[in-house]
């Protein structure tokens, strides 16, 4: 039977896990997906709004979890909606996490095969990635958190340096005028911004592991702000250099921006490899935490030991990752996952929160 | 049990040895042809190709494009190096291939040269104006933009004559592609050079439907010179004409791309006066009055009086400095008017970035006129206000 050890994480670690989860495949395609919808330069406003909305959705989840201290949503869902619906929803969430982790590794494999390891077979890239991920999550949430604490600062520093070096291509005129076509384009872009903030849903399990679950909201807000700021800088630099019309024509605009310049005399001339390296680390973090969430969900649902479940899930993730036949299917898959997130972790928790508040389910109220 | 574990571990460690071989997909750089330059001309098979074709080297194709692929390095035998004759001193190899799909042309390369070609280091793309007049530039760069090896930092240039001639050098040891790539950096010395147009930027401009200019090249006797600019019309992405050096200078002033350079003029007695630009700034203001759109361009420059042939005038004299400033302003205004006239009357295109100013300053108006902006622009009123300041006169007070 699955027993929760004293595997606790600090508030900072919670922040880091949320940030690492959010920073995933989105950062390379964000400027294009966003601009395609917005069609003006105002995407950055949508980004800020999207971030705020996600924070609200995340807060709902945290508040909900705080009503059931020490339990993950997989455990307390039954108490709210009954065992049958609860189990179904939990299974859905597990499937969601499996799909998301599969999607992340597939995107990683595609980009790696395009720019880094041309000619290496997909299974070789994907499998090595998956096994190392498995090795990490067998160590539990604490090992994951500690690894992420190493990854995140490296990511931030390298990403910022890469973008800073691109500043000579930057032209502020490409980001003007602000709101030239009114507020409507900004609203139009909201959906694609929500997709890059996928990751807040990890709060369905994290509060149960937190040393101080009361700081959940704070952790969530900071954890969302870090990716928000990084996304903002990325978007501004990429659109500022490539213009709206250029961004929509590039499959991986952020990468293309970094590929658009060479710096002589700075030890390295080309910086896309650094970007790819940190980006692979970020994908790895998203993948592992999803993998962990999925296994934890199954373990708690079936009340079995988590180890065999981790091993058992591995082939499923592999198969799902190789399902999309081409890039279009892959991007559609990503959009589909994003849509599911909105319903499963955006609207559903609000509903649950309403139910628990109205029917006073959840033993401990936070006022003490 | 213990021995089982031992066997397992030793088997595992032997398996792990496989990983120690390192990267088995590596390719030695000496065995690759590094593609550094690409020139595109109107398709015409070279004598060599015709001869090869006569002997059966042909496949279904239309001879639309002749691509000249410049590759480095050239392998040299010891003998040749010692003899050092002029032919073998070339550091590069140009291969001409004719056909239609540029990607296929790149692959045809492997039928003639044994070292596989790689695109990671493509520095320049030169397109002849004749080809560009006939073909949409978008089609020409389509493969290059899509390819995953070729970097979007590749520079795009246009040439008056054959583009392949721009990839030939008369100087021993010189690689023309690198030469061209570095020459655009000379903007701070000469204001007749346009800001470099890289593929990333070109892609955005072509998609926006805006007309644009590309740095033009002329060639003679193995020498290449930057001269003027090729004008490409936005709707078709085709070449429609050339701006001369003087007009490019004017265009750079309008676009605010001046990083240095010179204004030369003659005073009333016909003596040379030259001005070294230290800093310059341009502001374009758009005004919308009903259906009329007009622009006001104000230019300010700081610099130094650097050459004065008239001995009777000394720069310590305030009156002379004021007079000299006026000469320079006169010259600059004349240049700007010529450029504007060429843009508005001859080519009827906006390549001076006026569209951006209108888009930023009057987004609502812009939406209504953006469809035929070039047409609207050619009827716009453009006024200039030039203010040139001489801050000093160098190390000579005479």
From TrEMBL, chain A:
Keywords: Germination, Membrane, Transmembrane, Transmembrane helix, Transport. It is found in: Membrane. Its main location: membrane. It is a multi-pass membrane protein. One of its GO terms (biological process) is spore germination. It comes from the Bacteria. The chain crosses the membrane at residues 12-31, 43-62, 83-103, 115-138, 150-170, 190-209, 221-244, 273-294, 306-324, 336-359. One of its GO terms (cellular component) is membrane. Pfam families: Spore_permease (PF03845). Belongs to the amino acid-polyamine-organocation (APC) superfamily. Spore germination protein (SGP) (TC 2.A.3.9) family. This is Spore gernimation protein. It comes from Paenibacillus antarcticus.
């Amino acid at each position: 039977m699955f027993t929760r050890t004293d595997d606790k994480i600090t508030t900072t670690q919670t922040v880091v896990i949320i940030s690492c989860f959010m920073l995933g495949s989105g950062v390379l395609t964000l400027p294009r997906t966003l601009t395609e919808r917005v069609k003006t330069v105002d995407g950055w406003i949508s980004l800020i709004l999207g971030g705020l909305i996600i924070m609200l959705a995340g807060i709902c989840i945290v508040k909900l979890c705080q009503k059931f201290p020490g339990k993950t949503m997989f455990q307390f869902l039954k108490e709210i909606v009954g065992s049958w619906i609860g189990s179904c929803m939990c299974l859905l969430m597990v499937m969601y996490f499996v799909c998301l982790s599969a999607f992340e590794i597939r995107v990683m494999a595609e980009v790696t095969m395009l720019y880094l390891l041309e000619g290496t077979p997909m299974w070789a890239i994907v499998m090595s990635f998956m096994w190392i991920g498995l090795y990490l999550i067998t160590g539990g949430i604490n090992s994951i958190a500690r690894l992420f604490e190493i990854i995140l600062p490296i990511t931030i520093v390298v990403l910022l340096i890469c973008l800073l070096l691109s500043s000579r291509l930057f032209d502020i005129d490409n980001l003007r005028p602000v709101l030239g076509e009114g507020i409507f384009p900004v609203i139009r872009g909201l959906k694609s911004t929500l997709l890059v903030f996928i990751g807040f849903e990890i709060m369905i399990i994290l509060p149960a592991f937190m040393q101080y679950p009361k700081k959940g909201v704070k952790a969530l807000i900071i954890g969302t702000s870090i990716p928000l700021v990084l996304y903002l800088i990325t978007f501004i630099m990429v659109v500022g250099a490539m213009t709206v019309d250029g961004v929509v024509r590039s499959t991986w605009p952020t990468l293309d921006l970094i590929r658009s310049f060479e710096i002589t005399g700075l030890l390295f001339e080309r910086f896309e490899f650094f970007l790819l390296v940190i980006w692979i680390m970020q994908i790895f973090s998203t993948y592992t935490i999803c993998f962990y969430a999925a296994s934890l969900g199954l373990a708690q649902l079936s009340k079995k030991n988590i180890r065999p479940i981790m091993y058992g899930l591995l082939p499923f993730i592999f198969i799902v990752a190789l399902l999309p036949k081409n890039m279009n299917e892959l991007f559609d898959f990503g959009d589909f996952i994003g849509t599911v997130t909105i319903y499963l972790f955006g609207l559903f928790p609000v509903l649950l929160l309403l139910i628990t508040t109205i029917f006073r389910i959840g033993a401990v109220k936070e006022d003490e | 049990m213990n021995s089982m574990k031992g066997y397992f571990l030793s088997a595992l460690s032997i398996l792990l040895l496989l990983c120690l071989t390192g990267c088995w997909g590596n390719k030695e750089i000496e065995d690759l042809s590094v593609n550094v330059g690409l020139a595109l001309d109107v398709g015409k098979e070279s004598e060599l190709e015709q001869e090869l074709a006569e002997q059966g080297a042909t496949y279904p194709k239309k001879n639309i494009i002749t691509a000249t692929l410049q590759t480095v390095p050239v392998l040299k035998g010891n003998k040749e190096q010692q003899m050092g004759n002029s032919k073998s001193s070339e550091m590069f190899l140009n291969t001409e291939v004719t056909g239609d799909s540029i990607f296929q042309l790149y692959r045809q390369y492997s039928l003639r040269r044994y070292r596989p070609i790689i695109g990671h280091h493509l520095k320049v793309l030169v397109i002849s104006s004749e080809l560009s007049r006939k073909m949409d530039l978008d089609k020409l760069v389509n493969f290059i933009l899509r390819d995953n090896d070729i970097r979007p930092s590749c520079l795009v240039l246009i040439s008056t004559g054959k583009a392949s001639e721009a990839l030939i050098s008369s100087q021993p040891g010189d690689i023309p592609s690198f030469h061209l790539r570095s020459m655009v950096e000379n903007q701070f010395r000469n204001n007749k050079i346009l800001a470099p147009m890289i593929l990333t930027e070109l892609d955005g401009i072509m998609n926006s439907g805006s007309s644009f200019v590309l740095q033009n090249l002329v060639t003679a006797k193995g020498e290449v010179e930057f001269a003027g600019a090729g004008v490409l019309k936005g709707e078709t992405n085709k070449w429609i004409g050339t701006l001369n050096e003087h007009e490019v200078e004017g265009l750079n002033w309008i676009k605010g791309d001046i990083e240095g350079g010179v204004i030369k003029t003659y005073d009333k007695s016909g003596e040379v006066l030259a001005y070294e630009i230290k800093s310059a700034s341009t502001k374009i203001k758009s005004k919308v009055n009903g259906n009329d759109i007009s622009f006001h361009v104000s230019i300010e420059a700081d610099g130094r009086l650097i050459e004065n042939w008239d001995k009777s005038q000394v720069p310590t004299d305030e009156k002379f400095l004021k007079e000299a400033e006026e000469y320079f302003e006169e010259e600059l205004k004349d240049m700007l008017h010529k450029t504007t006239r060429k843009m508005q009357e001859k080519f009827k295109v906006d390549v001076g970035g006026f569209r951006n100013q209108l888009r930023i300053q009057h987004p609502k108006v812009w939406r209504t006129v953006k469809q035929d902006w070039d047409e609207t622009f050619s009827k716009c009123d453009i006024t200039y206000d030039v203010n040139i300041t001489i801050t000093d006169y160098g190390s000579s007070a005479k």
